[in-house]
Amino acid sequence: MNARSAVPRILMAAAWLLATACASSPQTSAPADPQPIAYKLEDGRMTTELTLDPALRAYPELRARLFNDGMVEIREFEAAVREARTEEGGELQYNMDLSLAWQAPVETARLVSSDGLFWSYTGGAHGNPGFHSIVWDRQDEREIKPAELFRADVDQKKLDHALCDAINAAKAARGGDQAWDPSPYRDEPAQPDLWACPAALETPFSLAPGDTAGKAGGLVFLIGPYIVGPYAEGVYTAVVPAAAFSALLSPEWADQFGGAPAPEFLDRLRTEPAR
């Protein structure tokens, strides 16, 4: 089997991560290395890298979780690349890269969240960017699954609609052919030539910094390529203010949201929409 036929398996192994390239003998760095690089390997035409923002050191359990999960994905990717290289009978003809970078945390009185930006290249016309995210309970030191933030006894379509509106706003801000008209809500039939809105609870999201102390001003949804448009459109960051979903929140977490997204945060997104 040649290296190109091994690409689909490598893509599956890397589905949630990504990287960069080169060097003949493996060189690794230990988990205790200084921030932000927590791990990096350059091995011939393969490069893998995991970075963790220095601010995550304030949350050692969360940081350990992000490191461990990231390394599982990186090791799977590395093993798949080495298998492809062996089957090729030597070095690959193109780079196999995977990198993951976890960003500075956003916190409320009880919650903290972080975005994971990843990039991979395993052959073909271009690499692929994407996102991870995590919401963490600061008191109990555990991950909060997306559905836990919301009441189980209410219809979440309102949140889906709010996300679709936020995506439309992000598309309209770019102008040109990106804007949707009208917005094809997930629970309505989409026209054949339109991209459908994603379900909110199936889309990575993190906390939006708010204008009220100790509270998140909303949620930041992270939209990878191909989800709401072609690859050429790139990625989208869609902010849904707390007021749009406050009635849907679980009583346990409702007091962690309030006010509005911080103006300085929104200003930064306008200049760095991909985060």
Q: Which percent range describes the beta-strand content?
A: 15-25%
How many alpha or pi helices? Answer: 4
> How is the main sheet built?
7 strands, mixed
Order of helices and strands: HEEHEEEEEHEEEH
- Percent helix range: 10-25%
Residue-averaged pLDDT: 83
Number of strands: 10
- What class would the helix/strand composition place it in? alpha+beta
Cα-to-Cα separation, first versus last residue: 39 Å
Shape: globular
Q: What's the alpha carbon Rg, rounded to whole Å?
A: 20 Å
Uncertain segments are 1-34
Overview of the structural elements:
The chain is of the alpha+beta class and about 280 residues long. Strands 1, 2, 3, 4, 5, 6 and 7 form a seven-stranded mixed beta sheet that branches. A three-stranded antiparallel beta sheet has the order 8-9-10. Helix 1 runs antiparallel to helix 2. The longest helix has 29 residues. The protein starts with a helix and ends with a helix.
Which SSEs are present, and which pair or pack?
Layout: H1 3-13, E1 37-43, E2 46-52, H2 60-88, E3 96-102, E4 106-107, E5 111-121, E6 128-137, E7 142-143, H3 157-174, E8 205-209, E9 216-223, E10 236-241, H4 263-271
Parallel strand pairs: 2-3
Antiparallel strand pairs: 1-2, 3-5, 4-5, 5-6, 6-7, 8-9, 9-10
Helix pairs in contact: 1-2
Could you name the key traits of this structure?
275 residues, alpha+beta, 7-stranded mixed β-sheet, 4 helices, 10 strands, 24% helix, 24% strand, globular, disordered N terminus
Give a concise summary.
With 275 residues, the chain is of the alpha+beta class.
